[in-house]
């Protein structure tokens, strides 16, 4: 892995609100070695003149399902795990080509996929995983139709995003097992869902005792719990039980947002997921009941952004698109920009994402010692966030772990 010296560009530091001129950045051994306002002496490094382009940290998506290869969750579960893994590899390659160099998979991906990226078998982003999401019987990750009396639905399959587990002792064991298998955090389903077959949006899932038990197991392992939640009541409940990461939050209200902020929580809105489902969900098999649930959360999404921003609740970038709908991934930037300033959106996809991945100082920044995850962007994302949309069309170069995944500069 040869050294690379970036010169002649503008540096995007997510902690600032404007680009900075006159910096040079030296990369070697997969890490950023030096960032300087004065010329860096590195005779053996490959010199890249950015010609005024923007150099910024790689993007972080904190809510993806890389093993979701089709919108139909039951069909995704039933396909062979080997097929799911190969399809997931292609999805990971596409994600990286959009400029996302770190992804927090919010249930489904396993340690084998992490290793495939680390060993270079797949040219994808760094993966932070939680393993299978924990769901109660009839909860959001329970894919069984109402007339299916099986105790579970092929939970061992890679394409099954969750595992059904009930009772305090059993959820403790399940959390321990996922952590043993390489999970970096624990994901639970604590509210009704859109794409699941039997749970209305308003349903509260898991008892407080079960949630607290899972939180305790995560804390014992030095990590945290992430919860699928939409309604204000569900959000308040999991915050009171010690959950840190709040996924979706479409129906949150100001008082709960303030309580979550005070508790040190981070929210992960995923508004593009509902846009994608509204556009094409029916085409891929979602019925009228699911369509009604989609509209409930979709219509409140933009308001939730304003509520969380006003409360000072940090937000990380997320997408949560299923299968064929992942083509809408970067549309999330444009949706967020209807409410949030560009600088805050950039922080959500860099600094805040790094906090949630427990990788502060290593990703989401351009600083000595950080991973060399870098994007070269045509334009100024602070002035026009669409520079980061368009599936990487305005990114002539993408570097992950010190290697170019894309380089159109030479």
What is the topological layout?
Layout: E1 4-7, E2 10-11, E3 20-21, E4 24-28, E5 31-36, E6 46-49, E7 54-57, E8 59-64, H1 73-78, H2 81-97, E9 100-105, H3 111-118, E10 126-128, E11 133-135, E12 162-164, H4 168-180, E13 186-189, H5 208-220, E14 225-231, H6 232-240, E15 245-251, H7 254-262, E16 266-268, H8 271-280, H9 288-298, H10 301-311, H11 331-336, H12 342-348, H13 351-356, E17 374-377, E18 397-400, E19 403-407
Parallel strand pairs: 1-6, 2-7, 8-9, 9-10, 11-12, 13-14, 14-15, 15-16
Antiparallel strand pairs: 1-4, 2-3, 4-5, 7-17, 17-18, 18-19
Organism: Kaistia soli DSM 19436
GO molecular function: hydrolase activity, acting on carbon-nitrogen (but not peptide) bonds
Protein name: Imidazolonepropionase
Structure description:
- By secondary structure, the protein is α/β, with parallel strands linked by helices.
- It folds into 2 domains: 102 residues, Urease, subunit C, domain 1 (Roll); 271 residues, TIM Barrel (Alpha-Beta Barrel), CATH 3.20.20.140.
- The chain is 31% helix and 20% strand.
- It contains 13 helices and 19 strands.
- Strands 3-2-7-17-18-19 form a 6-stranded mixed sheet, with no helix packed on it. Strands 5-4-1-6 form a 4-stranded mixed sheet, with no helix packed on it.
- The chain starts with a strand and ends with a strand.
- The model has no long low-confidence stretch (mean pLDDT 94).
Uncertain spans: none
Query: C-alpha Rg, in Å?
Result: 21 Å
Q: Counting H and I runs of at least 4 residues, what is the number of helices? A: 13
> Roughly what percent helix?
25-40%
Based on the coordinates given, report the CATH architecture of the largest domain: Alpha-Beta Barrel
Q: Please, how many domains?
A: 2
The mean pLDDT is 94
From the 3D structure, determine the CATH topology of the largest domain.
TIM Barrel
| Shape, per Cα inertia axes | globular
Coarse structural class: alpha/beta
